[in-house]
Design a protein that fits this description.
seven-stranded mixed β-sheet; Rossmann fold; cytoplasm; Helicase, Ruva Protein, domain 3; alpha/beta; 9 strands; 261 residues; two-stranded antiparallel ribbon; 2 domains
């Protein structure tokens, strides 16, 4: 493949460690009838191993130079290339009638968090997502209440899905090597939310407000949204810190404190 110059504005770090790629592909346990979408195929380090196990693959790519290279080496019957910003792409359009999508990718670190929430907004069309991300982000995605990494991202992602840390990826697996460690995470959207909020926008605002004073009692940061009586009704100690409450706790508080119209 012709040499491609990496572009900082796309946050490009290309994976080149075949052993780690193969490990990632094995964790997917692909079936021939899976409809798989790869976000950000880059130079094809993950794309080509996926095509070894699949008859067809969808990819979403924004970099026109990379798209040209992929088109030169692949036919449309094997690889469908969608030239688009993944943050704006409607993934539901790729879902077949009988089975949800599977999404995979080495995500650009500069857009990974908004992209995950964009995908979760379409989770009715997705069965699972397996991503290589900055390790710090994976630690937050998969954190548990009471740990230092538990926060807004953990709560709002785990509201929608199960998040599993799969394995560590060192900087040397990429070209150019990033200045941070990476890891692989699997996100499994819940078919039915275990703790549904009456108003998800209110839940998001409440969680964001709670973590404005992470080290103080939660009654302080939420005093404008939740009364002490509502804490008591939810069975939650108002003296706990925000990072000590679970997803279920935050949903209970949100449902007991609907915004006044």
């Amino acid at each position: 493949m012709t040499e491609h110059r990496t572009r900082k504005r796309f946050g490009q770090h290309f994976l080149h460690d075949r052993n780690l790629v193969d490990r990632m592909v094995r964790t997917l346990d692909l079936k021939q009838d899976d409809t798989v979408v790869e976000i950000g195929p880059g130079r094809g380090a993950l794309t080509y191993p996926l095509l070894e196990d699949l008859p067809h693959l969808h990819v979403v790519e924004l970099d026109r130079d990379l798209i040209t290279l992929l088109r030169q080496e692949n036919t449309p019957d094997r690889l469908s290339i969608h030239e688009s910003d993944a943050l704006k792409f409607d993934f539901r359009t790729l879902k077949p009638a009988d089975k949800p999508l599977r999404v995979v990718g080495n995500l650009p670190y500069n857009i990974s968090t908004p992209l995950i929430f964009h995908l979760l907004s379409q989770s009715d069309a997705i069965s699972d997502m397996t991503f290589m991300l900055q390790k710090e982000v994976v630690d937050r995605l998969t954190a548990s209440p009471g740990t230092r990494d538990w926060g807004r991202l953990s709560i709002m992602v785990q509201y929608y899905c199960q998040a599993d840390y799969l394995f560590f990826v060192p900087p040397g697996a990429f070209s150019p090597p990033p200045k941070v460690d990476s890891a692989v995470v699997r996100l499994l959207p819940y078919p039915t939310l275990p703790h549904p909020a009456d108003d998800e926008d209110h839940l998001r605002r409440l969680v964001a407000q709670a973590f404005t004073q992470r080290r103080k009692a939660i009654r302080n940061s939420l005093k404008s949204l939740v009364s002490l009586e509502q804490f008591e009704a939810a069975g939650i100690d108002a003296g706990l810190r925000p990072d000590q409450l679970s997803v279920a706790d935050y949903v209970a508080l949100a449902n007991l404190s609907p915004p006044q119209s």
